[in-house]
Write a structure and sequence with these properties.
The protein has 161 residues and is mainly β. It has a single domain, classed as Jelly Rolls (Sandwich), CATH 2.60.120. It is built from 2 helices and 11 strands. Strands 3, 4, 6, 7, 8 and 10 form a 6-stranded antiparallel sheet that branches. The longest helix is centred in the last third of the chain and has 5 residues. The protein is globular and about 60 Å long.
């Protein structure tokens, strides 16, 4: 008897991360951490995530970096993070996983989008909690309108019939 596996997607959910007016970080060492995705009750097999980050007025060419932060035990996070929407200088940043480094141009108020299809693959396994760290070196603060930035995630479960 053949087993058919299907993917069951959860609802796309906004993740709190205050990116409006986030200050530039010339060394890409200071930025903002998002609130965490809590997998302790959802028990998803994986998660997908999408990001929207908009530069401010008169930026220089640089980059926006998005890093994934994982917590195996649900309390201790990589990079000395906390799993809360807060400013963060990760120590060490290299303990986190680089999701994407997006080159930016000098175009004012340019929106940059990125999606990742498997956070479990990035982590090596599904974990209890995860969050994100965003930093940039565009020489100006990010766009000041909160609606011009977002992080969303969707749970993924595999079902067999």
């Amino acid at each position: 008897m053949a087993v058919t596996a299907t993917i069951v997607y959860g609802t796309s959910t906004a993740l709190t991360c205050t990116l409006a007016s986030l200050a530039t970080s010339s060394g890409l060492t200071v930025g903002r951490e998002s609130a965490s995705i809590d997998n302790t009750s959802t028990l998803a097999d994986d998660y997908a995530a999408s990001f929207l980050v908009t530069t401010g007025t008169s930026p220089t060419a640089g980059q926006i970096q998005i890093w994934a932060i994982f917590s195996e035990d649900g309390s201790n996070y990589d990079g000395n993070a906390t799993g809360s929407d807060a400013g963060l200088t990760p120590v060490p940043k290299e303990n986190m996983k680089l999701v994407q480094s997006m080159p930016t141009t000098s175009t004012s108020n340019q929106a940059y989008r990125y999606s990742i299809g498997s956070l479990a693959r990035l982590a090596g396994q599904p974990l209890r909690k995860m969050s994100f760290f965003v930093t940039h070196n565009t020489a100006v603060n990010l766009n000041s309108t909160g609606g011009n930035h977002s992080i969303t995630y969707t749970s993924i479960k595999y079902s067999s019939a």
